[in-house]
């Protein structure tokens, strides 16, 4: 009986240009991913601290912020704990696709958060004689901060996309 075939030729080796372990935090990409996590945390804390006057808009902002935050932690953990060297994936391409898609979603979330902020002076009830606005003064300030941090987070994802594209194109050829 012949020996079983070696499975190694069927699985290509992983393509990784980012270092594993704590060394990833010393790269520009690692630092930007850390900023994505930090700013993303601030965004969803700020959005959650308001009364959510427009659930449809801010619900999407919360979904994008929490999902991107969680996936960024998972992505960074893959490199911190060295799993990138064990999983046969083109990590440069995966990095580009993940950050590119997340940039698009986060920029959309920023636009929705800014739209919610811009509705500050609209009355809460259109047929009411009271002057209660959609956002109180405190919520308006929190919403401004959430918009600014959502924009900063989107910029971080955009920078990660550019760095990932550069790495992918340099190692693709």
From TrEMBL:
Which PROSITE patterns does the record match to this protein?
Answer: MARVEL
TM helices/strands, residue ranges: 24-47, 59-84, 96-122, 142-165
Respond yes or no to whether keyword Transmembrane is given for this record.
Answer: yes
Location, primary (coarse class): membrane
Q: What is this protein called?
A: MARVEL domain-containing protein
Task: Supply one GO molecular-function term.
Answer: structural constituent of myelin sheath
Query: Biological process GO annotation list?
Result: myelination
Alphabetized, the UniProt keywords read:
Membrane, Transmembrane, Transmembrane helix
**Span of domain MARVEL:** 24-169
Localization of this protein? Membrane
This protein's membrane topology, according to the annotation, is: Multi-pass membrane protein
Q: How is this protein annotated for GO cellular component?
A: membrane
Which InterPro entries does the record associate with it? MAL, Marvel, MARVEL-CKLF_proteins
């Amino acid at each position: 009986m012949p020996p079983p075939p070696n499975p190694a030729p069927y699985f290509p080796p992983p393509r990784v240009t980012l270092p594993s372990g704590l060394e990833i935090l010393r790269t520009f990409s690692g630092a930007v991913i850390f900023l994505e996590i930090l700013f993303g945390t601030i965004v969803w804390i700020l959005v959650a601290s308001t009364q959510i006057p427009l659930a449809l808009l801010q619900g999407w902002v919360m979904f994008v912020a929490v999902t991107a935050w969680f996936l960024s932690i998972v992505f960074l953990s893959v490199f911190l704990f060295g799993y990138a060297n064990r999983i046969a994936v083109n990590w440069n391409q995966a990095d580009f696709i993940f950050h590119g898609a997340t940039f698009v979603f986060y920029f959309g979330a920023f636009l929705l958060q800014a739209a919610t902020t811009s509705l500050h002076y609209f009355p809460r009830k259109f047929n009411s004689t009271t002057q209660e606005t959609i956002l109180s003064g405190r919520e308006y300030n929190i919403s401004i901060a959430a918009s600014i941090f959502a924009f900063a987070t989107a910029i971080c994802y955009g920078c990660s996309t550019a760095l990932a594209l550069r790495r992918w194109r340099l190692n693709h050829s």
